Amino acid sequence: xxxxxxxxxxxxxxxxxxxxxxxxxxxxxxxxxxxxxxxxxxxxxxxxxxxxxxxxxxxxxxxxxxxxxxxxxxxxxxxxxxxxxxxxxxxxxxxxxxxxxxxxxxxxxxxxxxxxxxxxxxxxxxxxxxxxxxxxxxxxxxxxxxxxxxxxxxxxxxxxxxxxxxxxxxxxxxxxxxxxxxxxxxxxxxxxxxxxxxxxxxxxxxxxxxxxxxxxxxxxxxxxxxxxxxxxxxxxxxxxxxxxxxxxxxxxxxxxxxxxxxxxxxxxxxxxxxxxxxxxxxxxxxxxxxxxxxxxxxxxxxxxxxxxxxxxxxxxxxxxxxxxxxxxxxxxxxxxxxxxxxxxxxxxxxxxxxxxxxxxxxxxxxxxxxxxxxxxxxxxxxxxxxxxxxxxxxxxxxxxxxxxxxxxxxxxxxxxxxxxxx
Length: 422
Fold this sequence. Notes:
The protein has helices at about 15-20, 30-35, 60-75, 95-105, 115-130, 135-155, 165-175, 190-205, 215-225, 235-240, 260-270, 305-310, 315-335, 340-365, 370-400, 405-415, and strands at about 5-10, 40-50, 50-60, 90, 185, 205-210, 230, 245, 275, 295. A 6-stranded parallel sheet has the order 7-6-5-8-9-10, with helices on both faces. The chain has a 4-stranded antiparallel sheet with strand order 2-3-1-4, sandwiched between helices. By secondary structure, it is an alpha/beta fold.
């Protein structure tokens, strides 16, 4: 297949490394355009989420393509950094299974989360926009969406609303027991923030303040879910009054620095503050964890809570992986039949042209010249060709799925199909 994938995820690299390779959604198309410039790469797509960054490619020259992808990952995506541990490489069928599992959230920190499918779709749209996604990756992504849909509808993997944000809420509930009456500051107004807000309300929190750099988005989220919104300039003030802070903002550098947190902790006079940083790159300066009575958790710290979530869905994993295997087999059969496409098209066109020519000759001998009769005979000729070729073409497809090419070569030889068209 010449499919290649290179990347790193929460399974192989800590958050301090992953945040160096995080890519904003607005940058995906531009990076895809750069990646496809290599002559060794025919198609390419970049996937970046809070827990992974991966390059997927169809290679003309696999060894050269892999070398280019490694260089690109470190220099373009990793912003000039040197190579790091935790980079993995997959090829061919491994890539197919991996992308299907990623889209279906089988490879997520929180197994069964719904957000990852949207992120995979965003990666696909960016590749289409950059024109780096050709027929093979197009089919691969479309099949991954189908796989995710089947798993969600046919297994219990998505039986409850789960997400990284909900895991953060669960952590807050475990630390503050009971959780009712706690004041919460939510920094961000995207999908993850909304999921967190819903989880907070379910947990009993009633005093929830939403702060976001774009005030209108904070206003809309707060109004929709019965919270309060404050301007971004009020962030320092709100830090001093909250019991729990959850952040999920897409930024390159921490949005909450040591200075505001030091000031907030001084004003709190020993009252503990729980900060759960769901951002990648991280939203909170890691140095703040040195402050007394400030408890800072980042996305990697949620692993223990997420493990319990995985355990609760363990029974659904086996049937989900069976669906992945089935869908991978479908993709492999489609890919194996790709070399047949020119032969099938050329054989059908050649046979239809011969049949139409004979039909017109018959019309000429009969002295019949009406357009209706000519069209009817053309359609009849095409229908006869379709019926005659149906079984042979089915045999050709079955042969391709078995990995042999004897019949294909025989057909091209017997019907004198031109090599230039194959």
